[in-house]
Amino acid sequence: MMVTRAPAKLNLGLYVGEARSDGLHELRSLFCPLVLSDRVEITSAESDQVVCPGVEGPNLAAVALDALRARGWESPPLRIEIEKRIPVAAGLGGGSADAAAVLRLARGQVRDLEGIAAGIGADVPSQIRPRFSLVSGAGERFEELPAPGEFGVVLIPFDFGLGAGEVYAEFDRIGRARSAEELAGLERRLREAAADGASPLEYADLLVNDLERAAVSLRPEIAEALAALEEVGARVAMVAGSGPTAVGLFEDIVAADRAAGALPPRYAGAIVTAPARLGYPEGAE
After folding, report:
1. What is the CB neighbour count within 10 angstroms for residue 265?
2. CA 128 to chain centre
3. Distance between CA atoms of residues 278 and 149, nearest Å
4. Distances in Å between the alpha carbon of 206 and those of 7, 14, 21, 154, 191?
5. Is 224 exposed, middle or buried (0-12, 13-18, 19+ CB in 10 A)?
6. Model confidence at 285, in pLDDT bands (50, 70, 90)?
7. Strands 78-83 and 49-51
């Protein structure tokens, strides 16, 4: 048996450009892996199985395993059981993280894992080796950066999810896509700000999520959660990815834990976490 982890990713800033010919939007963002992670247990089996208790519907981990088999991966049959700790359809990349964890099993045995990952989803390539990264394209291109300085995170999840497709459609309806020149300038600014391992709180003005307005338009209660985080002292309050999770950034995890305890009772399910500043190993837990 082997146990590994699939870390959530947090978008620190998410700038959205025009839709490409493939329907995906050009992006610029900083991806930060979090300590919050799904637990993935791998055991031998008579035939391949991917099990994720409590989560119905298509599973990107199963798609990843099928893709490895299609490339000729000759590992014995596996049972992969995922214990979900990352909220589902929450803008935290949980499904992509699970797929990347499966792809890591074939490292050194199957060529072009990043290409396989890109065929599964734009967020997957950067999560094969989860490190603090500057991402571009639709998320499939990434550049590793020094681990960020200390900060704490409070996540307010909801009992509903938001599909990325519906959020981007709403963005196209009400938002303003950034030009290629604007994205290039923002990419330079993000790289320069993060290059020396500073805490993101030192460049808080860059932590803008262009999808936030669209997510709030679809689910106005997100705005209430963001206001609650600000009221308990969040230095930055923003939406995670395409939402709906509300995120508050704090000086450190102690401050984050204190703030989570001060939130109104309706946010009792808030999650306190921190950056996985050294990333995650490829091997067992």
Report:
1. 5
2. 12
3. 11
4. 23, 9, 28, 19, 11
5. middle
6. very low
7. parallel
Which tokens go with 174?
């009400």
Tell me which H or E stretch contains 184: helix 180-194
Per-residue confidence (pLDDT) for residue 61, from 0 to 100: 96
**At 64, is the secondary structure helix, strand, or coil?**
helix
Q: Which residues does 159 contact at the CB level (< 8 Å), separation at least 6?
A: none
210 is catalytic: no
Mean pLDDT for the chain? 94
Mean pLDDT of the 155-160 span: 96
Q: What would you measure as the largest C-alpha separation in the chain, in angstroms?
A: 54
Calpha distance 68→107 (Å, rounded): 11
**Angle ∠(242,248,254) on CA atoms, nearest 5:** 140
> How much is the pLDDT for 277?
64
| Segment 230-264, tens digit of pLDDT | 999 999 999 999 999 999 999 999 999 999 999 99
Place of tokens 């990347």: 100
C-alpha span between 79 and 222 (Å, rounded): 37
- For residue 78, the 8-state DSSP code is E
pLDDT over threshold 80, residue 29: yes
One of 38, 98, 123, 210 is an active-site residue; which one?
123
Distance CA 238, CA 227 (A): 10
Can 84 be counted among the known catalytic residues? Answer: no
Closest CA to 224 of 237, 240, 235: 237
The amino acid present at 99, given as its one-letter code, is A
pLDDT > 70 fraction of the chain, expressed in percent and rounded: 97
- Which of 9, 38, 98, 210 is flagged as catalytic? 9
For 205, residues 6+ apart whose C-beta sits below 8 A from its C-beta are none
